[in-house]
Amino acid sequence: MKQRKFFKATKNHSGAGDYLFDFFNYTFMIFLCVVMLYPFLNQVAVSLNEATDSLKGGIFLWPRIFTLANYKYVFGEASIFHAFFISVLRTVIGTLTSVLCTAMVAYTISRKDYVLRKFVTIAFVITMYINGGLIPNYLLIKDLGLLDSFWVYIVPGIIGVFNLIVIRSFIEGIPDSLFESAKIDGAGDFTTFIKIVLPLSLPVLATVSLFVAVGQWNSWFDVFLYNSSTPNLSTLQYELMKILQNSNASMSGKTASDAMANTTAQANMVTPTSIRATMTIIASLPIIMVYPFLQKYFVKGLTLGGVKG
Amino acid sequence: MQAETKVADELIQTSVSIQSNKKKGLFLKKLKTQKALMAMSIPFLIWLFVFKYVPLWGWSIAFQDYKPALGMFDQTWSGLKHFKFLFDDANFYRVLRNTLGMSVINLVLGFVTAIGLALLLNEIRHSKFKKIVQTISYMPHFLSWVVAASIISYSLSTDTGIVNIVLMKLGIIHQPILWLGKETWFWGINGVSDVWKNVGWNTIIYLAAITMIDPEQYEAADIDGATRLQRIRYITLPSLKPTIIILLIMNLGYILESGFEAQYLLGNPMNLDYSENLDIYVLKYGISMGNFSLATAAGIFKTVVSFIFLFTANHIAKKFDQPRLF
Predict the structure, then answer these.
(1) What is the distance in angstroms between the Cα of B47 and the nearest Cα belonging to chain A?
(2) Major location, coarse class (chain A) (predicted)?
(3) Exposure winner among A53, B165, B224, B299, fewest CB in 10 A?
(4) Looking at residue A82, what DSSP letter applies?
């Protein structure tokens, strides 16, 4: 006991000041966690509470009258269920294609003797700093006939420059001897990419997949901009956004459509508040369940990109 | 392959006259062996050209009276008319003020809180506790702004919002406040929301820089009897300086990118005068009202000013012999 105290004293520097520092620091960290988590957990409680009862307030971390009715209602709405399906579809297809294509280009610009290496790299990096902006991009999408189509979610963002640099840095770290022996075995560049680069890059691919998947799952602006007149291409985030906009607008007076939404909702024993809470949970749960397991990777990936990019 | 190049290099050095021929030969040879590499990258170069470089041509719209029904070459040129309109528009100055105001607030708040949190996290010795705090603090970053805005507006509501409840319990306020209805508070609310969402995430880069610090420095400080605060003040903070400067330069380049989603989603008719920024202005004029030319002009203004900021910041860093972007 005595020894431990002594050890601590030399290491941490004794004195009331240090203990006080630790006390405040740990207290602050716990406070921080509460601030980060509470608003979300509160929504979980509201989504699991009986809708009309929630309006009385006083729901904090636990539902007062437990019910699954809100979830049943939300998943029972054909339009919301379809939006959920589109969200999943764009996340899966978008992530797979983007990660594969980005890795492929990253591999080519990691080859030091590739004649177009410099050109390709610079052409991509420039676009990080200059872009056409909202209107020219919109007109391009329109002219390409991508308005009101599913592919507008996939094609325009198929390669992310930041991800490209992160993957390239990782591939450059693979020992040259592996590439040379592959060459001696007669493997072409494509085979090398599939059989050597992809399996060895799994850690960085996991990171990039997380970034891309989160971006796909969370995006609503492209739906709003390009597909807002095609309800069957709507996504979960966009549906939630419309509900949010409705309640924002109604802050300064109830609108007719809002009142109508209220009556239809009340007939089903749900309220806009409970629908919003429920959709908030559905729209965020998939990511919240995945990201902690990839923490090690994305921290590494972010620093790699930050240092070399 | 490498040995071959080496031999070739030696040959090249022996004679100047053969040099160009040899190089050309090597280049052609390379072209042949790199067919696969080209097949893997050239399609994406074309993609890049179409989706990233063609829109740059779209900037010409700002100098035309663009009509979507007409073809690209049938538009009438109108010179700087749209820019003149822009600089005469009181709304433009209002959104510019909001953009700059929110950018500066977000920049300062974002930097101070992220560096502060990184320093405090670094002082936690229980690695398990530290990791849990980090994981929790990353959480809001992964939420979409739609979800975040929904959560924030619920937390700020008058009847069920936790912020009003806590403040009333503490006796700081006696009446619930309609936070998002107070237009002059919007910049602050937007800044705090941004901190809530991103502060944990933004510590990652600083914590990575902290791990690079030589532990001997801390040991020496311990021997000299430095307190925890002194260690932070004289070792950790100074060694973060290069990282801070680089990030500051990069962020100055984005000074007119005060974000779009937060303002758009938290904005409502009551705080419109302070929540609308340049991006929302572009969206309103361009997409909603169909005035593509004016909206593009505003977009060009934004890009040009961003570039000037980026280069100025980089130049200042160069002058003071600090790390810089390029």
Answers:
(1) 8
(2) membrane
(3) B224
(4) H
Query: How many angstroms separate the CA atoms of A147 and A136, rounded?
Result: 14
Q: What is the pLDDT of residues A153-177, one digit of tens each?
A: 999 999 999 999 999 999 999 999 9
Q: How many CB atoms lie within 10 A of CB B228?
A: 18
Contact A206, A279 (CB under 8 A): no
Q: Does residue A3 lie within any of the structural domains?
A: no
Question: Which candidate, B27, B22, B29, places its Cα nearest to that of B8?
Answer: B22
- What pTM was computed for the model? 0.87
Q: How far is CA B211 from the centre of its chain?
A: 24
Beta bridge partners of A66: A49
Domain assignment of residue A180, yes or no? yes
Residue with tokens 């050209």: B49
Domain that holds residue A104: 74-230+288-308
For residue A14, the model assigns a pLDDT of: 56
Residue A148 banded pLDDT, cuts 50, 70, 90? very high
Distances (CA, A) of B123 to A18, A263, B118: 11, 54, 9
Contact A218 B145 (CB under 8 A): yes
Sign of the CA dihedral with B36 first, then B42, B43, and B45 last: positive
As beta bridge partners, residue A287 has none
Alpha helices in B123-236 (DSSP H): 127-142, 145-155, 162-169, 186-211, 215-223, 228-231
Report yes or no: B222 and A13 within 8 Å, Cβ to Cβ. yes
Mean pLDDT for back-to-back runs of 10 residues, chain B (326 residues): 50 49 71 88 96 93 87 83 94 95 95 96 94 96 96 91 93 92 94 96 92 90 88 93 86 81 93 93 91 93 87 82 67
CA distances from B37 to A115, A116, A124, B168 (A): 9, 9, 16, 65
Report the domain count for chain A: 1
The fold adopted by the segment(s) B82-319 is MetI-like fold (1.10.3720)
- Token look-up 């979300």 returns A40
Question: Would an 8 Å CB–CB cutoff place B154 in contact with chain A?
Answer: yes
- β partners of residue B157: none
Mean of all residue pLDDT scores within chain A: 87
d(CA A29, CA A36) in angstroms, rounded, equals 10
Residue A221's domain is classified under what CATH number? 1.10.3720.10
Encoded tokens for B306 = 């961003």
For residue A117, being part of any structural domain is answered with: yes
In chain A, residues with a C-beta closer than 8 Å to the C-beta of B149 are 244
Within 8 A by CB and 6+ apart from B223, the residues are: none
Contact A15 B61 (CB under 8 A): no
What ranges do the domains of chain B cover?
2-68, 82-319
**pLDDT digits 0-9 by tens, B138-173:** 999 999 999 999 999 999 998 889 999 999 999 999
**DSSP run (H or E) holding B104:** helix B90-122
Mutation choice for A interface testing from B123, B150, B197 by most A CBs within 10 A: B150
* SS3 assignment, position A258: helix
Residues of A in contact with B34 (CB under 8 A): 113-115, 189
CB B59 within 8 A of CB A137: no
Nearest to A111 among B37, B51, B196 (CB): B37
Residue A126 resides in a domain: yes
